[in-house]
Write a structure and sequence with these properties.
Blueprint: E1 5-9, H1 14-25, E2 29-33, H2 37-44, E3 50-52, H3 60-74, E4 79-82, H4 97-125, E5 128-133, H5 146-166, E6 171-178, H6 184-187, H7 199-212, E7 217-220, H8 222-232, H9 236-244
Helix pairs in contact: 1-7, 3-4, 4-5
The structure holds NADP nicotinamide-adenine-dinucleotide phosphate.
NADP nicotinamide-adenine-dinucleotide phosphate is lined by residues 9-10, 12-16, 34-36, 39, 55-58, 83-86, 106, 133, 135, 178, 180-181, 183-186.
Length: 250
């Protein structure tokens, strides 16, 4: 992929910020969105190629207005990356409606709000890459992650459908599945995080995967991906015996 115009949701922090800086260094013009204007401004200060567009993905009218503004300001969107997410470790058996509402509204419905204007723009242009940061946590239902894990599973399923349906419009749908990466999101975790990666390292793999191939899935680190994929295909009696071990002792 040649450098063009990118729009990154969640570009003000963590993986999104690191991907933004790497794309800008490669010559991309990068629009970044998120709710915290100070975070966006700090990332934008790294390069004149980075433009902040504050946005809350739970606000449908603001999503439409921002997509239209970016099209006017920058002329189009060659690469869209959705990386907004809410995550909260949940107590075992905690199905708080309010927590689910926030997590589903951000992680899943946030993408749906953006998909319509972004895909319309890409259809007009005749091409585009539509990427979403899902997670290996979406490969199967993880204890203590009821809301987050199920939104990521929903995203993976949705993206499979979109990849097939949007191929005739020359829109390449890409699914990014990181393992554990150091960020604000994981700083609050109080459990072991195997194969934890640095943010920069994760961003390098994402940028490489997006710009040097058209493949659907960009998943890393390899050991974590194989572990999770193997667990996903275990027969259920074995799977649930293993999951039981992930429950807290008390
Ligand atoms: N870190 C990991 O181990 C890991 C593993 C797998 C997948 N992921 C995924 O990678 C993506 C980036 O996460 P991260 O680890 O880099 O953590 P992060 O720094 O917390 O990134 C999440 C981003 O989402 C934005 N966001 C949250 N709610 C939003 C809303 N309502 N509207 C607009 N933006 C919103 C946040 O910005 P504001 O708060 O300013 O809005 C923030 O920039 C997420 O999709 C996450 O699920 C992370």
């Amino acid at each position: 992929m040649k450098p063009g115009i990118a729009w990154i949701i969640g570009g003000g922090s963590g993986i999104g910020a690191a991907v933004t800086k790497q794309l800008a260094a490669l010559g991309w013009t990068v629009a970044i969105s998120g709710r915290r204007e100070d975070k966006l401004a700090a990332v934008a200060a790294a390069s004149p190629n980075i433009r902040p567009y504050p946005l809350d993905v739970t606000d449908g009218a603001a999503v439409d207005a921002t997509a239209a503004k970016i099209a006017v300001d920058l002329g189009g969107i060659d690469l869209f990356i959705f990386g907004a997410a809410a995550w909260e470790p949940m107590k075992v058996g905690d199905y708080s409606f309010e927590k689910f509402k926030t997590i589903v509204d951000t992680n899943y419905l946030g993408l749906i709000r953006l998909a319509n204007p972004v895909i319309a723009q890409m259809r007009n242009q005749g091409s585009g890459h539509f990427a979403v940061i899902a997670s290996v946590a979406g490969y199967f239902g993880l204890p203590r992650s009821a809301a987050y894990s199920s939104t990521k599973a929903g995203l993976i399923n949705l993206l499979e459908t979109m990849r097939t349906e949007l191929a005739p419009s020359n829109i390449k749908v890409r699914m990014i599945a990181p393992g554990f990466v150091k960020s604000e999101l994981t700083d609050k975790n109080d459990f072991p995080m195997p194969f934890l990666m640095e943010t920069e390292d994760a961003a390098t793999r994402i940028v490489e995967g997006l710009t040097t191939s058209d493949r659907f899935e960009i998943a890393f680190p390899r050991r974590m991906v194989w572990l999770m994929k193997t667990i996903r295909f275990l027969p259920y009696p074995v799977f649930f015996r293993l999951m039981k071990r992930l429950l807290p002792k008390k």
